[in-house]
Amino acid sequence: xxxxxxxxxxxxxxxxxxxxxxxxxxxxxxxxxxxxxxxxxxxxxxxxxxxxxxxxxxxxxxxxxxxxxxxxxxxxxxxxxxxxxxxxxxxxxxxxxxxxxxxxxxxxxxxxxxxxxxxxxxxxxxxxxxxxxxxxxxxxxxxxxxxxxxxxxxxxxxxxxxxxxxxxxxxxxxxxxxxxxxxxxxxxxxxxxxxxxxxxxxxxxxxxxxxxxxxxxxxxxxxxxxxxxxxxxxxxxxxxxxxxxxxxxxxxxxxxxxxxxxxxxxxxxxxxxxxxxxxxxxxxxxxxxxxxxxxxxxxxxxxxxxxxxxxxxxxxxxxxxxxxxxxxxxxx
Length: 332
Ligand SMILES: NC(=O)c1ccc[n+]([C@@H]2O[C@H](COP(=O)([O-])OP(=O)(O)OC[C@H]3O[C@@H](n4cnc5c(N)ncnc54)[C@H](O)[C@@H]3O)[C@@H](O)[C@H]2O)c1
What we know:
Layout: E1 2-6, H1 11-22, E2 26-31, E3 46-49, H2 55-64, E4 69-72, H3 79-84, H4 86-106, E5 111-117, H5 140-157, E6 162-168, E7 170-172, H6 190-200, E8 209-211, E9 223-224, E10 226-228, H7 229-244, E11 250-254, E12 260-261, H8 262-273, E13 280-282, E14 291-292, H9 297-303, H10 312-325
Parallel strand pairs: 1-2, 1-4, 2-3, 4-5, 5-6, 6-11, 7-10, 8-13, 9-14
Antiparallel strand pairs: 9-12
Helix pairs in contact: 1-7, 2-4, 4-5, 6-8, 6-10, 8-10
Bound molecules: nicotinamide-adenine-dinucleotide.
């Protein structure tokens, strides 16, 4: 099968593209490199540097490369930035996704796997969250993903497409070979921030900020569900099989089902690295919720997917190998 991976020079897309390639799929990547890295696209995978807005170019790629399935990772991902610049998010994440879906329809490509997020749920009523939890995004970022999910569902009902929307919780970790990993600029995710503070912080406590120590959790810090990036990539392969086998279209949570607090994550990093992690506790960040964990039972039952890296320390260990060998990410 021929798979178009849009946003395939980014963190999750590039590792998924590699897994697909290693499993015999023909993979073409489209990425505008606004946030991704040319070096993240592995040899043997064609990278087309293009923006989602270039619908003529996309149509040509879909037809000339005989694309069967689109994996749509391309998006802006910063909750805080989306609060400050909502239109940027609605344009890039919603308007350009609609353009992509129109282009797919005109090129008769009918299957799509979409990168959605736990942020569609907003402030959860309970933990863990299942897919039946109300969709009440608390940021333009989360709303942009919920809107695309709605479009996908309506198009599916109209008979235009079949789709799987994967609602990722917190993607983390690196490729076990330590040659691919997380390199967001700016970085806002906890595990790379902890590890980079060890590499670049030089013992400075202010190098790592913990936002909120007074949440209603056992140690007062937020609890999140970390899922290894290779488990995410494997879930995309499972979703692809699910679509090919005419499984039902819909949204699926993708998480470990277990939560770890910020302090537990810091302790895991200390255990993995053998180094003390200095940090300061600051006030809560607007929009952060106390506990966010996934009930991922639906995808497990329907596709047979299971996480291979459920332990926090194994997730942190792969990330540490990557950051230690590449202290400046793909730049070196
Ligand atoms: N990282 C996480 O923890 C997480 C959690 C939930 C959901 N997601 C979703 O997963 C997807 C991938 O996340 P990531 O962490 O790999 O992000 P990333 O920023 O590393 O990758 C996104 C890629 O999309 C590309 N891109 C963005 N807009 C584009 C456009 N208009 N045209 C072409 N390319 C464009 C960027 O250059 C980048 O390479 C995103 O859609 C994100 O919302 C990520």
